[in-house]
Fold each of these.
Amino acid sequence: MANHEEIKAKINSLKTEINRHNYRYYVMDSPEVSDAEYDALMRELKGLEERYPQLVTADSPSQRIGAAPAEAFGVVEHPYPLLSLGNVFSKDELIAWYTRISKLLEVTQFGFVGEHKIDGLAVALTYVNRRLTTGATRGDGSHGEDITRNLRTIRSIPLSLPREAPPRLEVRGEVFLPKTGFHRLNQERAAEGQPLFANPRNAAAGSVRQLDSSITARRPLDIYIYMMGYAEGRATPATHWETMEYLQSLGFKVNPNNRRLADIEQVEGYYQTWKERQAELPYEADGIVVKVDQFDLQQRLGDVGREPRWAIAYKFPATQGTTLLRDIGINVGRTGTLNPVAILEPVTVGGVTIRQAALHNEDDIRRKDIRIGDNVIVQRAGGVIPEIIGPIESKRTGKEKEFSLKEKSREIYRAKRGLTKETKTPNNTICPECGTEAIKPEGEVMYYCSNAACPAQAQQRIEHFASRGAMDIRGIGESQSAMLLREGLVKDASDLYYLKDKKEQLIKLERMAEKNATNMLEAIEKSKERPLARLIFALGIRHAGEEMAEVLSREFHSIDKLADASREELLSIPTIGPKIADSVIAFFQEEENRRIIERMGEVGVRLGVRSAEVRAISNTTGDRSGQVWDLAEALAAVSRFTAAVFVR
Ligand code: IVH
C-alpha cells in the first residue's frame, strides 16, 4: 500500500481538481467534464477519505455542496440547509442503502416515494402570509442567491397561495428547461452566433441567474416542487406522499410521474421502467430519487454531513463522457449529403463503446469550435446517434487542426484512390467516394454529391430502405447491401424484391449459404406488408423523416396520390413547408424513382393504406369527421400502380 504522504498528495490533487470543476459548474455554468467523470472523481475522494478519516478537512469539496454564490445577487440564508443527495448506481448499491437504513430503524417494512431526478437547478420558495416573498438558489446549502425577481417570471410558480395555506411555508423544487425549450433556445443562440448551452441544466441555471429578469421571462422555464422545507401555523401531513398531494392542492406543480412504492422491489421496478423510457420524458432526468415516505422515519434516520440518510439518488447509466477527437471523416448519406463524422478514441459511456459521433455540418463544427485533436465531450441521448457537445478548450496543446470540408473531401478521395497530392481533382468540395463535385443548394447548410449514380449513395439508400424504422428487412445491413451491389445482384431497392429469382447466385455469396439466403428472402417477402408511412420513409425522400412520412401517409393514403400532389396541395398541410414540398415534387419528378416504385408495386409491395387504417385515421383526425370511408373509396384513393395487390 502507498504511504501516508502519497495518499495525502492524491487527496489534495483530487480536491484541487474537484474544486476547479465545482467553480466551472456552479459559478460559470460552463463545465469542463461530464457529470460521470465528476462523479468518479468525487467517489474516489470520498473513498479515500472514508479509509483515512484523519485526512478529512473542513474545506474538502466532499464536505459541502456547491460553490459560493455569485456576488451580484443578494444573499439569502436558508433557515434549514438545502441538502444534497448520495448516489447509487446499481441494484446492489440500492439494496445496501436499504439494508443500512432498515438496520438503523430496526424495521424492514416501510414505504417509499419514487421521483424523477430532473436535471435542473434547486430552488427554495418562501411564502409569508401566503405571498411569495423569497426565491433562492441552493448556493452552498446554507446560503443561496436571492433570485426572487427571476423566479416570479416562471408561470408555474404561484405568487400567492389560497387562504388555507400555512402562514409561513417554504417549499423546494427543481427549475428546469424542457427538452424542446432547450433545443429552441440553442437554435436561437446558434442563429445569433452566441455560444450554445451544453445541457438543459446549464441552460436553466444560466436563465435563472440573469441579472436582467426580462431575459429570464423569455425562457420557457418550468418547475416541479419535490419537498416541503418547513411549515408554520398549520398542521401538515405525516408522509412525504401526502405532503406532495397537499402542496399540489395549494397550487404547486408536482411531477405526475411520482409514485408511492410499497417496498424496495417496487423501487427497482420504477427505476427500470424509467431507465428504459428516459427518452420519452419532456425533460432531462439523470436518475430517480428514492425517499422514505414517513416523516417520523425520516427524522429518526437524520443526516450524515450534507446528505439525508432517508433519501438517495439512483442514477441512470451515464450518457456523457470525454475523449480524443482523432479525426473528422465524411460519410456520404443516402440523399448524397456529405456528413462530417467524428472519429473518436473509443470511450465507454454508460456501458456502450462510442467510436464515432455525428457532427451535423461544417457550420456547426465551426460554431462549436471543434478541432481535430481536441478533447471533446460526447453525449449519448436516448439511444440515438452520439453527439459531440463541444471541445474542452483548457486541454488544447496548440497542435489541433481546424476542419475544412473542402480539404478533407479531397484528402479522403485521394487516399482512397492512392493518388498523390499533385493529382488533378477539381479545386472544390468533392464527393469523397466518387470524386464528383459537390454542390450546396442556396439556403441549405449541407453539401450534396451531385452524382445520382454515386455508389456510396446507392449503398446507403438500400441500407436505409431495409433499416428498422423503414421496411425493417432483417439481415440486410451495411455489409450485405454493399455486397449485393458489388456483386451486381441489385442496383436499387426495388431489386431486393426480385432477388428470389436469383437465389442460386445469392447462395454463392461470401458467408451466405442456403439458410441465410432463405431467411433473407423471407424477410424481404414479409416487408411487402409494411404500412405506407414506412414505405414513404424508406424511399428516402430528402427532408422526409419518420414523422413527416406519417403525415404524408395520413394525408394522401397512397403513393399514387402523393406522387400526383401539387405544390399547393402539399403546402396546404400545416406541418409541410416549402422545403419538404419541393423535395417531394422533385423526388417524384425523377423518372428513376417512379420506375422503382412501379417495380415494387408489380410484385406486391403495399403502396396504400388499408381501409381499416383509413377509417382509423379519419377517426383520429378531427378534420374528416362525419366522412365515411369504405373499401371501395379507399381503393379508389389507392394506387394506379397496383390497386389489385391491395385487396387480399
Ligand atoms: S430531494 C434532501 N428530489 O438533486 C433531498 N432532489 O443532489 C434533497 N433534484 O439539490 C433533494 N430532482 O437539485 C430531490 N425529485 C427530486 C429531485 C431533486 C432533482 C436535485 C436537486 C437537489 C439534487 C440533489
Amino acid sequence: MKKSVVARLFAMSLAAVMTMGLLTACGGGNAASTEPADTKEADTQVEAEAEESKTEESTEAAEAETESAGTEEAGAEVSEALADGVLTVGTNAEFPPFEYVDDNGEPDGFDIALIKAIGEKLGVEVTVENMEFASLVSSIGSKIDVSIAGMTVTDERKESVDFSEPYYEAVQYVILPADSEAATAADLTGMTIGVQLGTTGDFIATDDVEGSVVQQYNKGVDAVNDLINGRVDCVIIDKNPALVFESKFEGQIKAVDGAQFEFGAEEYAIALPKGDTALAAQINSALEEIKADGTFDELVKTYIEQE
Ligand code: ARG
C-alpha cells in the first residue's frame, strides 16, 4: 500500500520536474536530469505550473515517466518475505517431473530447480518444505513464503493468493487401463475416478464429469496404483505426470490427452502471498532473466523432455 503511494509521488515529482524542464528548456536549465531528492522544495511551485500546462506533450511525458518510475520502484523494493535472506518454498513432491523425492530423500524436479535458479538471481537461500498439495495455498504467508508445485492458476485460488507470471502450459490427461476404449467426454460418465485431492483434476472429475464417483488420494501415484488394481476406472491428472506414470507402468495403463475429453488448457505459476507486489515483481523479473539467458530451456531439457 504505502509503496504505491510513494511510487506515485515519485512519479509526480519527476513529471513536474520534467515539465519544468520543458518550460525552461530555452533557458538552458537541466532540471529534467536533476535527482528527485534535490528538487523537493521546487515540487510545490512546479506542481501548480504542471497542472496548468496540460499540453499533449507534457501529458505523454508524464505518463511515460509514471511508467518507468513505477517499474524502478517495484524493482528496487525488497519484499519482507526475503528480509531474512531465505525464501521458504512449499511444494508437494509427488508430481514428477515437476517435483519428486530423489534417491537421497530430497525434493527435486523441474520446479525445484526453477525456484532455486530464481533464488540465486534474487541472492537468497531457498529452502523447500514438502507438504500435502491441499495445504499449500493456505500455508502461504505463514509456514511458507511461496509455493511452486505445478500449481494451476485458478480464479478460486486467486481469492487467497497472487500468482507470478505463468511459466508452463498444461492440460489434464486421463489415465485408463491399457485396453480401455474410452475416448470421449461421454465415455467418462458415471466412472469412478481417481484424483489427487484438491487438484484441478479433482475439480474436473467432481464438477464436470456427469455421474462421477470421485476417489481422492493424497498422492497421484496411489490413484494410479488403484487404477491398476481395478479400484477406479480412470485417473485424471496433469499431462506430464500422466506421461511419467504411463512409462513407469508400461503396458498396464495408457495416458490420453484431455483435449479429447474437452478439458481446457491450464497454466502453472508460482503462488505468492496476496498483495506482496514487491515479491511478485522480484520473482517475475528473475523468471524473465531465467527465460532470456537460456536457463529455463535447459531445465525443460533436463527435467521434462527426457521423460
Ligand atoms: N496442476 C494441478 C493443480 O494445480 C495439479 C498440481 C499438483 N501438484 C503437485 N505438486 N502435487 O491443481
Amino acid sequence: MTLILDGRETAKEVRREVKEGVAAFRGRHGRPPGLAVILVGEDPASRIYTRNKARAAAKCGMFDVLHRLPDTTGESEILELISALNADPRIDGILVQLPLPAAVDARRILAAVDPAKDADGFHPLNLGRLVLGEEGPTPCTPLGILTLLDRYEIDLEGMEAVVLGRSNIVGKPMATLLTARNATVTVCHSRTRDLGFHTRRADLVVSAMGRPERITGDMVKEGVVAVDVGINRLPDGTLVGDFHFESVAPKARAVTPVPGGVGPMTIATLLANVLRLAGYRVRSSE
Ligand code: GUN
C-alpha cells in the first residue's frame, strides 16, 4: 500500500501548534508575532500565494501586513519599505515574494532584509548558516518537506536522495538539509544528461523542476519516496506535479499529492519560522 503524505492534514497540525505558540507569546509579551509580506507586481500565482500567506498568519493570531506594490516600483522604494519594516517593532518576519520584476535586483533586495527578521531564510547570512549547519531561519519549502517526512517517520539516514532542480529557494537548501540528515544526495538540473539514470537508483526523489508529469513510473524504483514540489497547470486547467502520479504512485512507498502535498507545508512552515524569529527577537532584547 502506498502511503499518501497528506500535506493538508500535517500543515493543519503545524498551524495548530503555531497558533498555541502565538497565544503563549502574546500572553507573555503583550503583542502577537508579526509578519510583513511584500508583493511587487501582478503575477497571478504570486498574488494568490501572498494573500494565502497573510491570511494564514492572521488565522493563527499573528499581526500581518501585506504590501502590494505595482511592478513599476523602483528598487529604492522597495529598499525604503524594507528598511521601515526592519525598524518596526511589531514586525518579526519579513517576506519578499519571488520572483521580483526583472528590473529589480533581487539579490540586493533579499540582502536588505534584517537577517533576524528573514522569514524565508533567503538572506545570504542565513543561507550561509544553513550550509554551516548553524541555527537560523530555513527556507520554508525544503524545511516543510523535512517536517512532512518526519511526521510520517520516514528515516532519511543513509538514503540515496535525488533532488531535481537547483534553485536557491528549493533545490540547493533541500540538498543541504538532506545531507545534514545523512542522506547521500545527488542534485540534477536542466543540463543533467540522463535524468532517469539518477532517479531510478534513488530511495527518495524530491522534484522541483516545474515540468508537468516529467517523472514517469518507469523512471523510479519500487519503494521510492516521491516528493513533488511542482505545481503545473495543464492547458485544460488541471493541476499536476512533476511526477506522473498514476504511474509513480503504485510503485512508491510514499508520495505527496498535488495539490495537497508540499504546498500547504510551505505556508505552515513560514508561520513556524515567524514564531521562532519572534521568540529569538524578544530574547535577544531582554
Ligand atoms: N516564490 C516561490 N516560492 C517562494 C517562497 O517560498 N518564498 C518567497 N518569498 N517567494 C517564493
Amino acid sequence: MIKIGFYQFCPTFGEVRANLHKIAEALEKIEAEILVLPELCTTGYLFTSPDEVSELSEPIPGPTTHFLEKITRRKNLWLVLGMAERDEISKRCYNSAVLIGPDGLKAVYRKPHLFLEEKLYFTPGNTPFRVYDLGIAKIGMLVCYDHFFPEAARALALQGAQIICHPSNLVLPGRGQQLTHVRAIENRIFWVLANRYGTEEREGKKLTYTGASQIVAPNGELLAQAEPDGESVQIVKISSAQADDKRVTAMNDLFQDRRPELYNIA
Ligand code: ACM
C-alpha cells in the first residue's frame, strides 16, 4: 500500500517565493509517497501579458525545482506540481507539470491542450504522452483542460499508468470533477485531481477556481474530496496494482474488449 494525495491551496498571483514557502510549510506536515499540487501553483494563473508570463516563468531545472527537490529527497516523496516554464534557448513559455522525487527532478510535461488565454501566452507541448515508473507506482501527468481529451488519459492508461496526477485550475463548476471521475472509471485507474481554490481579479478579468480536489479509485469510488473553498490536504492509502485489473465484469476486460479497428480516429 502507498499513500497518495493532494494539497489544495490558493496561490497568490506573482508571489513565487511566498507560494513556495507556503508549499514547503505544508509539505513538512504531510506524510505521503506521492503528492499532487495544482496547476501553475507557484505563479498563479490569471496572466495579463506575455511579458508577465516570461518574467514569472523559470527554466526547468531551475530555482523552483532545486528548492523543491531538497524537500522531496529528504522526505522520500514524489511530487507533481504545475509551474510556468521558460525555455532559455527558444524563450518560449510552457504551462508545465514537473515530477520531482527522492532522486531529484525526474520529468517535465508540457500541457498540449491550452485553455482560454493560455493560448495567447504559452506554447503548446508537443511530446507524446509518457508513463513514469516510480517503483511504487506507474504514473502519468495531465494538466487541467487535458482531461477533456479522453484520448490523452487513454494513451496513458494503455501504456500502463496506474495513477493520473492532474494539477488543475478548474473554472467550470463541477465539470472537471465529473469528467475526471469518468476518466478514472473508463480507464480503471486512480486519478488524483489537485485543484486550486479562490478568485483571481486582474486588470478587469476575473476567474473563480472550483476547488473540490478529489481522488478516485479504478472502480469509481470517490476516495477523498475537498470542499470547493479552503485549503485541504487529503491522503489515502491505495494499492496501485488495483489499476492493473481491467475487468469490468466476469466476461468483460476493458482493454481486451476495445475495437480500435472500428474507431477510425487519427
Ligand atoms: C484549465 O485548463 N486551466 C482549465
